[in-house]
Amino acid sequence: MNKLFRAFALFVGLAIMALGAAGAYFYFQLAPPLESKAAVYLIRPGTGLGQVVADLEAQGVIRNAQAARLYARLRQWHNQLKTGYYRFDKEQSASAVLEKIAMGKTTQIPYTIPEGYRVEQAAKNLDQYNLSSQRYINLANQPEATLFERFPFLKGTSAEQRLEGYLFPDTYHLGGSEEELIEAQLQRFAQVVMPLWEQRPAGHPLNLNDTIKLASVVELEGLLDRELPIIAGVFLHRLRIGMPLQSDPTTEYALGWHQDEKGLSLEDIKIDSPYNTYRYKGLMPTPIGNPGKAAIQAVLYPKETPYLYFVARGDGSHTFSATYPEHLAAIRRIHAGK
Which of 54-68, 102-116, 127-141, 293-307 has the lowest mean pLDDT? Predict the structure, then answer.
């Protein structure tokens, strides 16, 4: 009996020691790293626990991925991985990190795409949020066929080749995939632009696709909303009389860059591209960016004007002229600081 009691006592003692050692192990390994970091982490569909904790260790959010995975399995949290973004504070313990994931406490990530941005510009900062800028660009430049069923206004437009112009600029909450952002932008276009299009003036001379093309030019030519209808009126006037648009932003698009303060050179405007509106009359093959509501409204409701020319004053506004000599005189005055 005494032997049995001693054996039992030894077993209990060893068990207590083991539990104590395990507790000490977890206490140390689940504590925040010595130089812990705040972070935002994206769990994509199909991502397993092992990958998650390995990533979080690499980012300095947790101390030990193996200990974290073992702890999560003991708590039966390993099958509860809700996709989305998670925000982790500095000096947050691994147990708190894992509990946040287990409870699915995702966070919304606002992502702003300014008006006029090209697809490549809109994608530029996606890599900071564990999304692929290149995948976003690929999806925009090679749209999936299913999009044209969900967004029928795209049919018969340049969007069938690439979505430039139809990815409405706004602030979105990233949902965890590039596809979701693309669809959110198209949905916003449907909500904002299509009602404007359906209520367009009876005499509007352009179809939807050409309206968006011209709006993308107007967006980049004008900085002040009050001037956008005048700029739209100038370009529509040029189109009516068969005059080239002669728009710097379209030629910049052909060149693949934005001009500096010196502007385009004579050599620049010689580039042989259908986007070079100094060389070719009419509109470009596709929009040159994604215009906002004000620019689209300006094309739908342009200001009737005798003007054919305009030049930037340097403060965001423009001087408009009806004749080329008047235009040259305006340029001289501006350069003279008058």
Answer: 54-68
Q: Which of 78, 88, 76, 91 is nearest to 42 (CA)?
A: 88
Q: What is the pLDDT of residues 277-312, one digit of tens each?
A: 999 999 999 999 999 999 999 999 999 999 999 988
Could you tell me which of 288, 337, 301, 318 has the C-alpha nearest to residue 116? 288
Cα 261 to chain centroid, rounded: 26
- Residue 150 φ then ψ, to 5°: -80, -30
Can you give the pTM of this predicted structure? 0.82
Task: Centre a 10 Å sphere on the Cβ of residue 51 and count the other Cβ atoms it contains.
Answer: 14
**What are 205-246's pLDDT values in tens digits?**
999 999 999 999 999 999 999 999 999 999 999 999 999 999
DSSP-derived secondary structure for 182-217: HHHHHHHHHHHHHHHHHT--TT--S-HHHHHHHHHH
pLDDT > 70: percent of the chain: 86
Structure tokens at 71: 């702890």
Element (H, E) at 84: strand 84-88
Kindly provide the b/e burial profile for residues 255-271, where b requires at least 16 CB atoms within 10 angstroms of the residue's own CB: beeeeeeeebeeebbee
Question: Would you say 29 and 74 are in contact if contact means Cβ atoms under 8 Å apart?
Answer: no
> Apex CA 233: angle with CA 231 and CA 239, to 5°?
105
CA distance 240 to 192: 28
Which position has the token pair 């969900």?
Answer: 150
The candidate with the shortest Cα–Cα distance to 168, out of 191, 145, 155, 186, is: 186
- What are the strands, taking DSSP E only, across 89-235? 109-112, 171-174
d(CA 278, CA 281): 8
**For residue 36, pLDDT beyond 80:** no
Helix (H) / strand (E) element for 136: namely helix 133-141
Number of H helices, E strands in the chain: 13, 6
- Residues 126, 150: Cα–Cα separation, whole Å: 25
Task: Please give the C-alpha separations between residue 174 and each of 46, 169, 182, in angstroms, as whole numbers.
Answer: 18, 14, 10
